[in-house]
Design goal:
Distance between the termini: 47 Å
Structural class: mainly beta
Strand order of the largest sheet: 4-3-6-7-18-19
Number of helices: 4
Radius of gyration: 31 Å
Strand content: 35-45%
Largest sheet: 6 strands, antiparallel
Amino acid sequence: MLLGSALGTLTGSKLRIVLVGLLVVAAAVGGAFAVGILGVPSVAAVDNTFGDVTSETTEVRTDLVVSNPNPVGVRLDGVSVNYTVSMNDIEMAQGGREGVRVGTGNSTIPLETDLRNDAIPPWWVSHVRSGERTTVGIDASVTSGLLGRSVEFSRSREITTDLLGAFNSDETRPVNADSALTDDPILYVNETRGEWGSVSEAETPIDMAFTVYNPNLEPYAVSEIGYDVTMNGVEMASGQTEEGYVIPSRSAETIEFTTALQNRRLDEWWVTHLDADVRGHQVSDLRIEFYAVIELPTGEEVTVPLDELTYEETIETDIFDEGDDVRDSSADESGTDGNTTDDGGNQTDDGEATDGNTTDGDSTGDDTTDDDTTDDNTTDDGSDDGDDDDGVLPL
């Protein structure tokens, strides 16, 4: 009688019955996870690509691949996923999702967020200040309310450029006036030098120097050198020197001046950089054109296009290593072209840091599918044959 009364007190209402049932189920599920009867879903890969681009925003599309080793799908309403894309520690895009449904095997969770193009100038400043190097970081945070666990997922790769390297040249180039008043060439440029100046938030200076030789018996005066700098046709800088130079007879003189890229125009360039119809996806053409105003011995001034000094350099980036996920980039085989490196980040499929041998979008796991084994204990689908989680990221 006392036992019946106790049971009636405990389960006398439907609310209490439901509550007890939920507690039992939760305890069973939690215990199953704890003793390994059920596998813990893990993050298998994170893929990022650029989507639609407008004058103000750039869409970042993210596919988060979650691997569920269990034979049945589960809905984990208490799971939240957040991720951040940064470039040189500058946050470029951030997104996430609450409530995740995980099927058996690999499930892809699509996420979308917008990168504001006005974040491009600050990134550019950091890129130049870092010696034309950018570390692209992808950080994901996965939290499970059911299991009371939160884990971090990190991946980084390095992007490098060399916009001015080829401008440094000892090649001798003639300067022709194409004038009946003098014989060509009137001058020679024996050397060109260029390097980044002290970059600010507003401008990116380029310090330039020309070594000019005068082969004539009379001195020549260069009263002005003008320049125009474009990137994919977007005007980045335009101006002229503020002082003149006299090149003595059969002597050389170094002409020094500074151009300044206007950083406020970088977001406009960025749109063209991602537009495959301009130069190709993530491809740009840097072009610097010069002219000189030269005073002849007769006193006449002529404006001379310095076509021989026109400088062109192609800028190519692969910021997200598009087409290859982070799982493939940590495989043992790798290719390299010297432009972009993947340092392997903080997490790989076998839980170890990679050595940075993967470069510029080359897939290192071309022969590996989602079901192939990447090491002795861990497979690409997130399952683990060992005793620990071996670097797998549990939900």
